[in-house]
Structures are given as structure tokens and as C-alpha cells.
Specification:
Elements (H helix, E strand, L loop, with lengths): L2 H11 L31 E14 L2 E8 L8 E4 L4 E7 L7 E4 L5 H4 L14 E6 L5 E7 L16 E7 L9 E10 L2 E3 L29 E3 L2 E4 L10 E3 L4 E8 L6 E4 L5 E6 L2 E9 L1 E4 L4 E7 L5 E5 L3 H5 L3 E6 L32 E14 L2 E6 L11 E2 L4 E8 L5 E5 L4 E6 L2 E2 L4 E2 L1 E4 L4 E7 L6 E5 L2 H5 L3 E6 L1
Parallel strand pairs: 1-4, 3-8, 9-14, 13-21, 22-25, 24-33
Antiparallel strand pairs: 1-2, 4-6, 5-7, 7-8, 9-12, 10-11, 14-19, 15-18, 16-17, 16-19, 20-21, 22-23, 25-31, 26-30, 26-32, 27-28, 27-29, 27-31, 32-33
Bound molecules: copper (II) ion.
Length: 481
């Protein structure tokens, strides 16, 4: 569809409707139905065109952003593990771009991070990424450019999508499957940042300083408009289910800004994989937590007929659009929301007791925030200095490391290491194993240790997945000796 055609349609649709915050109502639309795409089969050749798009979050809320192939999220890229692929990227914008393949174990040159030496796709130019996807699981792709003080660039835009790597064993014993990404839109700077982290009970805070920093903090990025995929709550098609259905959800927090929570009244999420990797101990929870960049695969048994909102437990976030309606067959009523039972997210319930000795090679990263360290904004340091680092983190190939994150800031941070898999060894003061991640939320003043094997030679980027934090110093390069 051409952009002007889309605008025409959006213009026609803009007459009625409502936005998030008002009472959701059903709207029958023939497009945008989640899941069930017959063209969603594994391929080896893909094209992504980066260009301005408009996105109809709700009939009276059409925003402009940058997306892939005219949409956001972009097309679902479905690949087979071990089968080489080509992703052709056409950049129809005026700025250099990058596509990062998040959660894949692929060489630095095609990983899509400028810091690692991946080439930029020039403005109005093209480039092909060729790699062999691995490991199997729910991955994703997104731009990796810096935004700095431009909220129309980088991960604030609509440049992201799911990337699924199919393994040899695909259980698929589910009645339905849905890919749902949480997003926020139209970000702005404010010093009134709302803290949603208190949904999760405070754990130990071993990194809390004896004397608190009382300097005035800088501006942070905020947003009041949310969606799941491209629709605000109530504006898209509901997910239609039957009693007894087992529905598999693949959740992604594609926010550049904030940690998200999700709940579905009267139902529990049976978590089977985190960041696409099967967990040691699948377990059911009432509330999910996803830091920016994280994925959760969880199935839900549909055993409570009604019309429900699957959405953010925080009222302003859900009313601002972060939700989707679950409608049982033969049920017609206003979608219901009830607050979930009090619960706190804990990665370790999906783990198992540690086995074997801890790696003897240790790396430590200490994170600190410098209030207004970058003009109006805060800056961040890793081991006392902002990016770039030089020889601080040098890996010996084939060695297993224990990397300990010391979060001496008053925020939780989703910490991501490219091109490697992290096994959580300790978090919230608890030891665990069998939880393999690429992004780990380290709590406020908390400490976490992850183990990884240095088996992917080449430059490797570490960073906080909150765009503003990354841009203002919260990143480091790991290199191989
Ligand atoms: Cu951060």
C-alpha cells in the first residue's frame, strides 16, 4: 500500500471513534487481526524498507513515525535455525540507519551496531545483511541508531519487529498463537518521570550508597500514549477465543523508555521461555514484567468466559492505550478489568538450583548516574567513565565468565549484551541457574550476576536498553584478546 493511500483510509476513518482513556468499544475491522497470517512461513530472503509511515493507533489518533515496509511493527521475519538468510535493507530516509538483530549469535559486521563496526545503511542507500540465524526462539529486530535529544530518531520510532527462529522441534500444541509488542508513542522530556517499578516488591539493595545524591536530576523521556502492536486498547480487533483454548502469547516490550507489566484478569500466564530461551522451570504467574528489549513466551488457558482486557495493571498506562481485548465466543459486553493479585516479578522462579562450580574469571561493572551530567540530561558511567571504554573488558576466547552488575542508581535498568547468551547466576540476593537471557533487568540499587561463555569473537556491545541511558554513556564494548 502506498503511503498516500494509507493516509486516505486513515482520513476516512478519523470521523468517529475515541482514543484510549475512554470506554473501549468493539470495532469491526477487516485488517490488523493479530496472528493467523497464512504468509507467516519461514523464508531465506527478506526486504525491509525504512521510510516514514503513519500509524492509526485509534481512529482519532494517527501519528507519524518511521517504520519498516509501511507498518510498525514491521513484518514478522520467520527464519529456520542454521539456514542462511539475506535481509535486504533499503533506507528511504535522510539519515544513516542500522538494523540490529536482537538475541542472535551472529558476527559483529552484521549484528547491526555501529560500535561493533557494523556498517551504516546510507541515506537513500541499501545494504544486505547475510547471516545464519541461531539459536531458535523469539528474537526481534530494531534500529540501533542514537537519538540523543531527538525523540524522532532511534528506538523512539516504529523501527522494530518480531524475528522468529524456528528450531527442529516446534511443539505448537496451541489453539492460537499471538505476537504482541508493547509500545509507547509521542515521547517528550520531563522531570516528572513516573516510576512504575514499585509494582515489584523491593528486594535487597546492596548497592544503595550510604549518602544519597541530592543533586537535581535531569530530564527523562516520558510518554502518555501506548499501544499493543499498532493499536491502542479497544481500537483494534479483539483476540477471539473459545473456552478451553490454549493460547500462546509471544510478548515483546519494544519500548525505548520504560519497564512494562501485563495482566489478564482471572487468568494466569504459563511462562515457558524468557528472551526466546526455554526456562528450566516453567511456572504460572499473574503479572508479567518486561524491561525494554525483553520477550516472554507464555500460554494462557482460556477458562473464564467473558470479555477481558489484557493490559497494563497501572491505570494511566492501560487507559492510555496499553491493552488488547480478549473476547470469548458468544460473550458480548464491555471489556472488564480487575486488578491482579499482588505479585512481584522474580526471574529465579523459572530457574533451578545452581549446578557445578561458578566461573573463576570475573568481570565487574559498576553503574552510576551523574545528575545533569550532560546539560539538561543525566549521564551514566560504567566503572567510572562514560562510553567509550578501551581495554576495560577484554575476553579470552573459550572462557566462561561471571559478569556482575552493580546498579548504584535509583532506577532499574534492562541490561543487554549483544551476540552472547547470559545465564542468570544471582539476582535479588538469590542464586539460580537455567534462566538464559540476552537482557536482564537489574533492580534499583540491586546487584545481579550473569555467566556467559566468550565464544563469539568480535566486538560486542553492552548497554542499557533504555535509549536515553544508552545515548548518554550507559554502554561499553567488550573485545576479544
Ligand atoms: Cu538504563
Amino acid at each position: 500500500m502506498q503511503r498516500r493511500d494509507f493516509l486516505k483510509i486513515a482520513g476516512v476513518a478519523a470521523g468517529g471513534g475515541y482514543l484510549a482513556g475512554q470506554q473501549p468499544q468493539m470495532q469491526m475491522q477487516s485488517f490488523g487481526a493479530p496472528g493467523g497470517n497464512p504468509e507467516d512461513v519461514a523464508k531465506t530472503d527478506f526486504t525491509l524498507r525504512i521510510a516514514p509511515i503513519t500509524l492509526e493507533l485509534a481512529p482519532n489518533r494517527v501519528i507519524s513515525t518511521i517504520g519498516y515496509n509501511g507498518t510498525s511493527p514491521g513484518p514478522r521475519l520467520r527464519m529456520k535455525e542454521g539456514v542462511p538468510v539475506t535481509v535486504n535493507v533499503i533506507n528511504d530516509t535522510d539519515v544513516p540507519e542500522l538494523v540490529h538483530f536482537h538475541g542472535l549469535l551472529i558476527p559483529s559486521e552484521v549484528d547491526g551496531a555501529e560500535e561493533e563496526g557494523s556498517p551504516m545503511v546510507p541515506p537513500h542507500g541499501k545494504m544486505s545483511y547475510k547471516f545464519t540465524p541461531t539459536p531458535a526462539g523469539t528474537r526481534w529486530y530494531h534500529t540501533h541508531t542514537m537519538s540523543m535529544d531527538d525523540l524522532h530518531r532511534g528506538a523512539f520510532t516504529g523501527q522494530y519487529g518480531f524475528l522468529i527462529v524456528e528450531g527442529a522441534n516446534n511443539p505448537g500444541r496451541y489453539d492460537q498463537e499471538h505476537y504482541l509488542a508493547t509500545r509507547d508513542w509521542e515521547p517528550y522530556f520531563s522531570n516528572m518521570a513516573m516510576d512504575n517499578d514499585d509494582l515489584d516488591a523491593p528486594g535487597p539493595q546492596p548497592e544503595r550508597p550510604a549518602v544519597m545524591d541530592t543533586r537535581m536530576p535531569g530530564l527523562e523521556v516520558m510518554s502518555d500514549i501506548y499501544s499493543i502492536n499498532d493499536k491502542a486498547l479497544g481500537a483494534g480487533e479483539p483476540i477471539r477465543v473459545k473456552q478451553g483454548d490454549r493460547v500462546m502469547f509471544h510478548f515483546l516490550n519494544a519500548s525505548a523508555i520504560e519497564i512494562r507489566h501485563l495482566a489478564l484478569p482471572g487468568h494466569r500466564f504459563n511462562v515457558v521461555a524468557l528472551d526466546g530461551n526455554p526456562v528450566a522451570t516453567p511456572a504460572a504467574v499473574d503479572v508479567l514484567m518486561l524491561g525494554p528489549g525483553e520477550r516472554i513466551d507464555a500460554w494462557v488457558e482460556m477458562n473464564r468466559p467473558g470479555v477481558w482486557i489484557l493490559g497494563a495493571p497501572e491505570d494511566p498506562v492501560r487507559q492510555g492505550g496499553l491493552g488488547i481485548v480478549i473476547e470469548y465466543a458468544n460473550q458480548r459486553r464491555t471489556p472488564q478489568w480487575t486488578a491482579p493479585p499482588k505479585s512481584s516479578w522474580d526471574y529465579t522462579i523459572f530457574g533451578k538450583a545452581p549446578t557445578g562450580p561458578a566461573p573463576t574469571e570475573k568481570l565487574d561493572m559498576v553503574f552510576e548516574k551523574v545528575p545533569r551530567g550532560a546539560g539538561k540530561f543525566n549521564s551514566f558511567t560504567v566503572n567510572g567513565k562514560s562510553y567509550p571504554h578501551d581495554q576495560e573488558f577484554v575476553l579470552k576466547q573459550g572462557t566462561r565468565y561471571r559478569l556482575t552488575f552493580h546498579n548504584r542508581t535509583d532506577d532499574a535498568h534492562p541490561l543487554h549484551v549483544h551476540r552472547h547468551q547470559l545465564e542468570i547466576a544471582e539476582i535479588y540476593g538469590k542464586a539460580t541457574s537455567g534462566v538464559i537471557k540476552d537482557t536482564v533487568v537489574v533492580p534499583t540499587y540491586g546487584r545481579a550476576s550473569v555467566d556467559f561463555t566468550a565464544d563469539q569473537p568480535g566486538l560486542t556491545l553492552f548497554h542499557c536498553h533504555i535509549q536515553q541511558h544508552m545515548d548518554y554513556g550507559f554502554k561499553a564494548l567488550l573485545r576479544y584478546a
